[in-house]
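chain below, 213 aa
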Amino acid sequence: MLMSNDPSKRIHGLYALTPDEADTAKLLRQVAAALDGGVRWLQYRNKRADAALRQRQARELQALCAIVGAQLIVNDFPELAAEVDAAGAHVGKEDGALADARAALGEKIVGVSCYNESSRALAAQLAGADYVAFGSFFASPTKPNAVRASIDLLRTARAQLSVCVVAIGGITLDNASSVIAAGADAVAVSAALFNASDIAATAQAFNRLFVPN
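prediction:
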C-alpha cells in the first residue's frame, strides 16, 4: 500500500499519549499546555475510565484539539472516536480487528500496535492501516511489563513499510533521537511529557528533535 497523499493522515513529530487521569479539568489543563507547546497529534488513552468518563473526556479533548487543528486519536474505542468526530482510533491485539475499526471510522485514521512484530506491521499495512506503532523500545513507566522491541527492528521496518512508523515505550528527551535516527516518523510519549514540570516547553523540545540540523 502506498503512503497516504493526505498530509493530515501523515503522523509526524511528537505523538502525545494522555495519562490515566480521572480529573477531567486537570487533564484538559495538561493537554492545553501540550497543545501550546506544539503537539498536533494526541492520543486519548485512559485505561481506568468508565464509559461515561471516556465519552466526556473524549468530547472535551476533541474540542480542544479542534481549536488548534490537532488530530485526536482515541485508543481502544473506534466507535467512540466516530461518535466524538475524532481524527481516528488506535487499536492493539485486544481491541478488535482493524477491519472493524475501519468499518466504524470510514476514511478516518486507524493506527495499529505491532509491538515487536514486523509481520503484524506488514499485515496491518496491507489491511489499510494509516500508521503502525512498535515498542516498547525502553523501559516504560506506563507499561512496565510491555514486550521490548529493538532498534534494529525499527530500521528493518522502516525499509519494508510505506506507512508511517511510530516508536513507543519509555521514550524521553534523552533517548528519542535514537529511534528517530532509526526511522521513526513520530515518537509516542506519555510520562516524559505529562509528568514534566513545564509541559509546553517539553513538547517544544521533543518536536525540535525532528527539525533537520
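The beta strands are 13-17, 41-44, 71-75, 88-91, 109-115, 131-134, 164-168, 186-189. The first strand starts at residue 13 and ends at 17.
thats it, cya
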